[in-house]
């Protein structure tokens, strides 16, 4: 075991210096991956902007029927023109999404808990690699609990997925989970994102926090920021803008899109920030114009 005594706290993140190993391929940290991995990553991250708008609708795997997602077959087709990646379970994708959708697929690959449990940190790797291949998934999304009771098992899930993904050229997205007892500080997210990246994950999904630029600088693979709970549209657009300005390479919005009264216009406004460099103010003006 490493001796932690005398370990200095990291402080020099060189946030103004671009990632150094980025000459051969535009996705952060992917230079030394094979062609197949890069092809999947190019289905996730737009080659022009380098960013992505993910649409998460995997809530049903632990919440059941969710407000705004009662009819996946009606919700998803309308949003397809405005998002780059669909993040869902294999059941939802197979039953409610046309294979001709033309979108990247982030396949929710862990499960095992429900909203009836007090502790959601004990999950299993629920999708085998053969099914991920059959789904033509562009990445496998693995819930990862750092600092929770389920840390060891979730890291085991992550490791298995990464090992299998490397064998068959499917990237792994480590989804940093934050439970009720877990802190949402830059100290925690620096720890969690770095651990997940060093395990070999190719993408990290996490939350925005203070000193986010340092979290991004310390993580050698792209970070996608989770939208989290439903916010007023103006606040959600500010979250997206702060995330991209802070160095994130995308946002994964679920409730802030599908629970919006104007979900299509909201998704389009988020895309303006992520891909076209709009400020949050400009995006909100676009949103207001679109709904009137």
Automatic annotation (TrEMBL):
Top-level division of the source organism's lineage:
Bacteria
Top class in the EC scheme: lyase
| GO MF, one example | fructose-bisphosphate aldolase activity
Q: Does the keyword Lyase apply?
A: yes
Q: Which UniProt keywords apply?
A: Lyase
Q: Where is the signal peptide?
A: none
Which SUPFAM superfamilies does this entry report, sorted A to Z? Aldolase (SSF51569)
Enzyme Commission number(s) of this protein: 4.1.2.-
Pfam families in the record: DeoC
Q: Which InterPro entries match?
A: Aldolase_TIM, DeoC/FbaB/LacD_aldolase, DeoC/FbaB_aldolase, FbaB-like
Q: How is this protein named in the record?
A: Deoxyribose-phosphate aldolase/phospho-2-dehydro-3-deoxyheptonate aldolase
